[in-house]
Amino acid sequence: MKARHLSAVALALATGLASASAHAQDSGGVYVEAFGGASMLKDSDVTGNVVGKANFKSGPVVGAAVGYDYANSPFRSELEFIYRSGDAKTFAGGASGDFASTTFMVNGYYDFKAGGSLTPYLGAGAGYVTEIDFDISGGAGPGEYSDRGRFAWQAMGGINYALTNRIGLSGELRYFDAGTRTLSGSAGQVKAGYASFDAIVGVRYRF
After folding, report:
1. Which class does domain 29-206 fall in?
2. What is the average pLDDT score of the chain?
3. pTM of the entire predicted model
4. Comparing C-alpha atoms, which of 109, 85, 79 is closest to residue 97?
5. Residue 34 confidence class, pLDDT cut points 50, 70, 90
6. What does the alpha-carbon distance between residue 134 and residue 119 come to, in Å, rounded to a whole number?
């Protein structure tokens, strides 16, 4: 009789803990995330003061986000600030340079919550280019050329691994596109496209 009683208590505790865990996972809330990785800018035709086709080496991408995970829903949204950069290989008769940007993005995500520690997700974002600049050295038109404003968009997919109910690690691939930009400097203007493929790892903390 005593053994049956203890078994019933143990079963009730296990059920309660499982229910509490599920509630914690589905309760939603605010989270913050920091991330970084490698960015590969797409090749771009450059015209204006400098004329040629620029090819880029991989460069850094770093950023941070504040988001909200909606309770009992696969959707979450976030505000993100991100920096990315890439060095141009020698082009246009000896020119080279650094092509970099900072952007403020609003992102939406869909989490495929199937239970367990792994959660695949897809997302898309739109935002504002706070600054984009191409620092060109050598060649016929060296100088710093910059622009700001206008629309940018991105698409991403990844997977999050829950270390605890609050802390997660993510791996993500994304495509970012700020379109073709006319960049101005003291020596004139250059026109170039700015788009990249990024591979990112992040750490997320949910409050």
Report:
1. mainly beta
2. 88
3. 0.83
4. 85
5. very high
6. 38
Domain ranges of the chain: 29-206
How far is the C-alpha of 50 from the C-alpha of 122, rounded, in Å? 38
Three-class SS of residue 106?
strand
Got the DSSP string for 74-91? SEEEEEEEEEEEEEEEEE
Q: Where are the beta strands (DSSP E) in the chain?
A: 29-41, 44-48, 52-54, 59-69, 75-91, 95-111, 118-137, 143-147, 151-162, 167-185, 188-206
Residue 129 in tokens: 């280019």
pLDDT at 18: 38
In sequence order, what are the beta bridge partners of 168? Answer: 162, 204
pLDDT at residue 1 tops 80: no
Tokens 């809330």, residue?
A: 29
